[in-house]
Each structure stands twice: as structure tokens, then as C-alpha cells.
Amino acid sequence: MDYQTRTHDLWFLIDQVLGLPRQVARLPAFAEVDADLMRQVLDESGKFVAEVVAPLNRAGDEQGARWQAGEVLMPDGFRDAYQAFWQAGWPALSCDPQDGGQGLPAVLEATLYEMLSAANHGWTMAPGLLHGAYECIKHHASDDLKRMYLGKVATGEWLATMCLTEPHAGSDLGLARTKAQPMADGRYAISGSKIFISGGEHDLTDNIVHLVLARLPDAPPGPKGLSLFLVPKIDPHGQRLPVYCDRIEEKMGLHGSPTCAMRFEAAPGWLLGEPGKGLGAMFVMMNAARLHVALQGIGLLDAAWQKADAYARERRQMRAPGVARNGQEADLIQDHPAVRRMLDTQRAWIDGGRWLAYRTALELDRAKHASDDDTRQTAQRWCALATPVMKSMFTQQAFEGSSQCLQVLGGHGYVREWGIEQHVRDARVTMIYEGTNEIQAIDLLQRKVLPDGGLALAEWMVLELASLPATDPDLARRARIWQELTQDIARVQNQPRLPFELADDYLRGLGLWMLQLAWAHIAPRLGDLPEPERARWRSAHQALRRWVLPEWDMRVGIMRTALVGTEVAA
Amino acid sequence: MDYQTRTHDLWFLIDQVLGLPRQVARLPAFAEVDADLMRQVLDESGKFVAEVVAPLNRAGDEQGARWQAGEVLMPDGFRDAYQAFWQAGWPALSCDPQDGGQGLPAVLEATLYEMLSAANHGWTMAPGLLHGAYECIKHHASDDLKRMYLGKVATGEWLATMCLTEPHAGSDLGLARTKAQPMADGRYAISGSKIFISGGEHDLTDNIVHLVLARLPDAPPGPKGLSLFLVPKIDPHGQRLPVYCDRIEEKMGLHGSPTCAMRFEAAPGWLLGEPGKGLGAMFVMMNAARLHVALQGIGLLDAAWQKADAYARERRQMRAPGVARNGQEADLIQDHPAVRRMLDTQRAWIDGGRWLAYRTALELDRAKHASDDDTRQTAQRWCALATPVMKSMFTQQAFEGSSQCLQVLGGHGYVREWGIEQHVRDARVTMIYEGTNEIQAIDLLQRKVLPDGGLALAEWMVLELASLPATDPDLARRARIWQELTQDIARVQNQPRLPFELADDYLRGLGLWMLQLAWAHIAPRLGDLPEPERARWRSAHQALRRWVLPEWDMRVGIMRTALVGTEVAA
């Protein structure tokens, strides 16, 4: 079955729970945006996803992208769907109107990409990097460069790549060796090899804009020697530049997206931003990309859940305990406790995850558009803390949870028939790319939390507790324990490896608290829903408490035990 | 890299930790078996696996089994390897000498299949069912039938299948509809469709022996109406019988093993055992198969671990905390705490799992060959409790743990290059076949533990604690808590769904206790090992305590919370 876009579920969170239309209308940039417009865009985007993109998913996996003598042929239908996509204005949804965008709130881009990823992860990889590239060019390119590339990238007429990784250096960008040699005309000749470049070559668009990390001749070693360059596949005079795709990788999944090994042979490009500041410029792009990856996780999990739910509603196997005899020779598997638990648990993740993602989209808009400093800073703090947590939590859940959904189908899940195994294979990569989940955890604990001894985190928790619709003693209790724990980790003196060992536990624990926070906002509004929807949401909330949150206590226990016997600063 | 058989690791557990050569020598059937012979067989089997079977793994995945007009072509090299395998006597290792077997202890079959599964899971599916089929025929077939089939199945000259599942009935065998019509010559004409039949058709052997569940004309509905039949592909007169393979499934992995949709068109076969007792006869086969599946899990996890370990020893990325500068521009990733934790944790599972599996092999031999009733019954209790726990625990760990090993390789794990993603895909099916893991959990709690209120389990825990090399207060504490919890679950009156909801937690908790038990036997012998091996085992033991066992407390907490407010029997 193709993915069904059920925009009423998303809208309930956006409108009734988060009150997003009212919130964004307070930002001057969205003074013209109201609930009706947002709902209309959401529904239209859902329609596009369901009608145009979802039906191409299976072919994308089975046919896949194919390399032929340096060209990459995309699966049947992918180019037409992409052309329809950008021509309808979807990539420009939340770009600035002065760049050719539609100036809509980030949440509509979030829901668009969540649904796209659920419907067809492979296809969605192509436009998935566009917005980051747009922001990067907008903030770092010279006016000349913007004139040539910003509009084309904003609208998605040309697709973009991030060329970071090199064969000998995976996560460690500081080891990158690609060289940039100044040319007489002010451009730079880029030479080197990059791997794992999503969409490095394809036939979706007539040009491809590569953003490439490379070193100027006099650059120091390490990350501070990296500069960012813009290298097009075809230059403004129509000349094909020496940027080659040598092969595409054979992967576990995501076959609809070509993962390219790229070779730059003195390919001319322009410096983007300042020399030696390439990593900083690229990180703007990567942070946006990380929220997108969290949304991929939520979308993929929802796609897997839909299949498991549909199967569980029609398949009968054995007698379910506590279910009245009904004349059938066996009961629906959705009535078996083990199956019910798996389905409800995944909904707890999906619906809580959506709340967190849409809330983050709001904070992104606030960070950019709010008129007062205070709101902008508070919003930035949310984004800084939430981004690594969400990237890691929801990609891990996409893999493990879609595997649980596969389990609901038994042997029918392991074969291709229902298509659920594709989601498991596709989802696995999200735990790796855009910074592995382990790197997200270290980013959270070492860079975001510990430097100020956990102060910003504590303030943030207090603020979030205060803004709940009703006081929540359990969330408050956990926040207190968490703040103490954070201080204790910050005080450890004699064990430099300890925070790195505990970073995953720390991220999981904070993420579970955020999931509980999300549900503390959702639960009071469930009365607004009609049955049987209300029952589904209530079961998910109960599953959160019974089956998901106990991990929080386990994580705290692991960290507490590890702290025993450590030396602390006075 | 191909799987490396490191038999010294296995032998350390078998000989120094479990003292298996002394233990089996006490059984009359193995009076002639000594440590030297066992070690020799172990090493020879490891050599065969490494030289003949391991190199075919990648081709098995990429080329896969292919269906052509009802025939199934196995991947290149598979037939030759299988012919060499059975002609060398490997399938008959632990079969009775009077049936053409070698009469060796079950542990040597366990280690053989663990290594085979690690080296090439797809290929190993073919002989994987042989021993169960052998036991089934040995215990249930008439003498005539045994004369025709027992020897051929014991030696593996002919391969065997289990034909259980039907399209409309997955785990619920009681719904099976395949019919058996008595024929004039005493045989039965079998008609019906079976799906998910591993090795239903192939070119490895000249004949295939199908064991088929079907209903006699007067049989009642449900499981009690099922009888077991033996239907060969080719009858004793050389005639090809009407047993057809209509297709093979496209699967997430395990491409080297054809998963067949079979059609029996009045195919003549013989009744195996008594009418209406088919399920019982089949379960003999399935219990043996479940231990094999646990061994597949352990093997696959070890295969994934070897690749991750090798990668982590050669790949350098960034600075690792607490590691002295060494003139290299980056540190080995094995020195990064997050990577170390993943690698050590998986070793805790593999090595503890091996101890449990080899111990279970010993108990299988005791249950069959011990001269006194008491030993046989104690051994049977171990097997009854350990089989569902191990099947579920080690197949889940095979999937999740091999995914963790994949994570160590980052993007290089997601592409085919190192072959680790194949293990993740292959491992996924082990959580489903031979009874899904949810069914194992229900089997444990509902059938094995609760009927006597947890009495047998409690006795078993006491006995295991008493036979530890040294008292272990922590294991004893957990056993007490577990016994109380079990009694409390047994006393619940008003919630028929509750034990089914908690079955997974119950199985995980008991499984973690067993893993801790295994390490309580292993740890005191680590001093016997030379460095650097000793350090590797010690790190794994530490990982068990720090990162694995906290889940036990979480499971207890989940169950305790669920029990609050339930009504109990007086």
C-alpha cells in the first residue's frame, strides 16, 4: 500500500494543540498568514505527496538509481515528479518572497518533508538539501553569486549537494584534503575526491549546485583550514565543468537516491563566505538538515505504522485474551496484547515526535523573525538543544520502531509484499548521515549542556514546565532529578572519558523527557477529538507511560551508577 | 571480509568454563568421547566452515536463489559445498551411530551451526532443519518409513523441510486446511498450499523430504485435527511426485535460502506418528529448531562484531578523550568511548550467549542420555525454560546488536563494501521464524512458568545459584525479586490480558538474569586467559554490568507498575 497522507492528524497538533496559526501570526513576517491559509497549504501538499510522489516509492527501491558512464539515471517517474514539484512552488514554501519564495511558516515545510519522506524517502533526498543550501547561499554568498544561484536554488529549479566527506575521513571533516587553487578570474580550481554525496549526479534537474569544503593553498591543517566553495555542474556560460561522478554506492536501502563518489578535477568554483570559515557556513546548512532528518524518521515510522495497523485490522490469528467470542474462527491480531502494545507504542513516538518537530519549526521562525531579542534567544536555545536530541531519537525510533511494525506482519513483513521491510532498510541510514547519532549525543552533552554546567538547560526546563497547560508533578520531578544529574556530570574531574561514555544515555533521557513534555501538551486536548480517533490517541498516551517512559529511569540509573566513585570539583 | 572461525574462543567456554568434556563423559552414550576428540572435531568443523562455506556468503546474497519454471537454482558454489558437507559426515555429527551418525555430543553440533550461520546464514538454512527432521522421523515413523528415509536424512544425503504455514494462517497452525485423503495402498494423498517453506525446492540434493501438517477427512477443526505426513519430492521408485514450488519470496535478506510457496496436488505420502498428533510430533522438531535459531543469532552477531572490530582497529577519526597523543593526526575509533561501548556490549551478549547455548546443548544430551530420572528431568526443565528465552533474546540481539556494529562503520556500514548490512538484513528474519519472539514470550510465561505458579522456575533458580563457582549476592537478590514478581503475576485474577502484555518484559528479564548467570560462570576463569584476550573478556563483563543489566531493573519496574491495582487471589 502507498503511504496515505492523513493531514487531519497533523492539523490537530498544529492548530488545536500548538495553536501555531496564532503563534506565527504574531511574527511580523507572517502577519498575512492565517489558519485557513495554513490548512489549505497543508492539505494541498498532502495531496501532491499522495498523488505524485507516494506511487513511485516501490519502483524507486526496486529499480533504483543507475550509474551509466558517469551519468546517473533516476528511477522511472522521478524526473517528472520532481519537475512538477518545483514548478508548483513546493521547494520555495518557506523561502523569502524576495528570493522567489512564498514566505510561509517553517512548520509547513516540516509537514511537507515529513509526508514526502514517509511516502518516498529516496525521492525526497533530492530536494531535502535544498533549503539548507538556500540558507547557506543567502547568508554567505556575494551579491554576484546570489544573482546567479540563489533564485534557482530557492525555487528548486536546480538541486544542490553538500560535498563534505572524503574517503579517508568520515565524520572527521578536519582531515579533508580537497584543494582550492586561486584562478586568475577570482574563482578557485577545486581538486579532490568526495564520497557519500547524496544526489551528486542525477537527471532530475538541468544543473546541480555543489557546495564543497576544500583547503586554500596557505590553509592550516584541521577544521580551521577549511573554506566553502560553490561549484556548479554547468557554469553560467553553459559549459560542463570537470566534476565527475565515478560510481554510486550499493546500499542497504534508499536505492532511489544515488549516493555518489565525486571527483573534482580543477573544477572552477566561487568562495562562499570567508576563507577558513567553511565549516561554520556549512553548519548552518547541517542544522537545518538535522531537523529534516528527524522529520524523515517520524515520517518513515508513520509509514511503517500505517502498514502494520492496516494488516492488524484484517489479519485473524488465534484467540486474543479478554476478547468476546464473535463467531470468527480467530481474532484480529490488533486485539492481541503484544500487537496492541507494539502499535500503540509507535504512535506514542510518532505523535509526540510530531509535536516536538512542529514546535521546533515554530522556534525556528521565532529565532529568525521575532522582533525582540529575548524571544529570539529563547527560540535559539530550544533549537540548539532540540536538534541533536530529535535527530538521534527519531532516527533510532524510525529504525527500531519500523522493525517493530514489521514484526506485526510476521513473515509477511520480511517479504516485499507489503513493502514494510523497505522502510526498515531505508530508515537505517538516518542514524548515520548528517552526523551519526553518537556525534549528536556528544554535541548535546559536551557542546550544548556541560560548558555552562547545565545552567541553560535548567532554565529551559523550568520555562517549559511553566508553560504547560496544567502543572505536571511527574515532569517536574524528573526535571529536578535531571538538573542534579547534569550538575553531577559537570562536576566530574578525573574521568575525561565519562561524559563521552554517557552521552547516549544523556541524550535518550532528555529526549524521553521531551516526549513526555509533548504529550503533556497533547493530552488535555484529546477531548476535542471525535471517537474512534480519541481512543487511538489515548491508547498511545497510555503506551507512553507504560512502555516508553521506564527507559528514562533506566538511563538515570546507568548514569548514577557510573558517577559513583568519581572525583568531583569542590 | 569473510567470517573468521576463532575456535579457541569457543573452546575456552566449552572446556575451561563449562568443563563439558568431563560432563559429557559421565553420560554412557559418550563414554568414548574425550577433550582431545572434541577439540579436534571443533577445529575441523571450523576449518570446513572457513574454507568452504564462508567464501560463498556474498554471492549467496547478491546472486541469491532463483526460481525458474518450478525449479530453484541455488547460488554458484552452494551445491558443491553442500555435497562436500554431507559427504564429510557433518550433518550426522550428533545422530545415533546406528542411524549412520557419529554419536558426538550436541555441543559440537551447536558450535558447528553457530559458525555456519555466522559464515553464511543463507546456505546454512538448508541443513539447519535436518537434525529436527531426523529426530521427528526417528521417534514417529514406522519401521518401513525409517528404512526408506531415516538414514538419508541422518547423513544429510537428502534435505528436509517443515511444511506448516498456510497463506491464511501464519502462526496459527490450527487454521491449516491442507487435506490428506487415504489411498488404497496405505498412503495418503496430500493436497493444499503451504508458504514460507525454507528449502522447499533447490538443487542441493537429489531428493527432498517434506514433513507436512494436514487434516484427515474426519479430523476435527483446530490444532487437534492435524496429522503429520512425510511426502518426498521423488518416491522410492524414482517417480517425481506432484509437489510443486510455485514461486520463491523476495525478502529483506537471506537471499541464499529459497523461501518457497509449495503446492501439493494429491501428492502421496505416509502418516508420521498417530492421527491427530501431528502438532506434537512437529514440536519435537521445532524445539530443536529453536535452539538452532538462537545459535544463528549468536553467530550472526559475532560475524557483525568481527567486521566492526576490524574496522575500529584500522580507522582513525578525531581525537579520543583520555588517549595519549601518538603522532597520528587522529585516533583509532576503537578508542572512542561510544565505539568501545558498542563493541564491548555486543561481546557481552555473544560470549554469555555462547555459554548459555553450549550449556543447553549439554542439557539436551543429559535429557536424552542420563541414566537417572532426576538428571533427565532437571535437564528437561533447563531446556523447556531456556529454549524460548534464548530464541527470543539472541535473535533480537542479532538484529539490534548487528545494527550497532554497523553503526561503528558509519556510512561504510550502510553500503555493501564491508558486508555488515547483509548481517542486519539476514538477522531480521530470525525474530520471526520458528515462532515469533512474541510467541516465545507467551510460551515461556503462560505455558512454562505460570501453570504451577512459578514453582519450577523458582526451584530452577535456586539450583542454578547453588551451582555457581562462588556465591553471587547480586544474582541471588535478583532471583528473590523475580520469584516474588512471578508469584504476583500468577495471582492476578481480573485481567486476562495482563500476562500477555507483560510476556515480553518477563522473557527479557529472565533472559538478562541468565546472561548474568552465564558471566558469573565465565568471570572466575578469565585469569586463565593470556593477554590481550583477557582484557577483551573483562571489558565485555564490565559492559554487561554497566550497559546491559540495567534493562533488568527497567523490566521489573514495568511489570511492578502494571501490577499496581490488580486484584489478586486470596
Describe the overall structure.
The structure is a homodimer of 570-residue chains. With 570 residues, chain A is an alpha+beta fold. Chain A has 19 helices and 9 strands. In chain A, strands 3, 4, 5, 6, 7, 8 and 9 form a 7-stranded mixed sheet that branches. A two-stranded antiparallel ribbon of chain A has the order 1-2. In chain A, strand 4 and strand 5 (188-198) form a beta hairpin. In chain A, helix 3 runs parallel beside helix 6, helix 7 runs antiparallel to helix 8 and helix 10 crosses helix 17 (498-522). The longest helix of chain A is centred in the middle third of the chain and has 37 residues, at 278-314. Chain A is globular, with a radius of gyration of 24 Å. The termini of chain A are far apart. The mean pLDDT of chain A is 95.
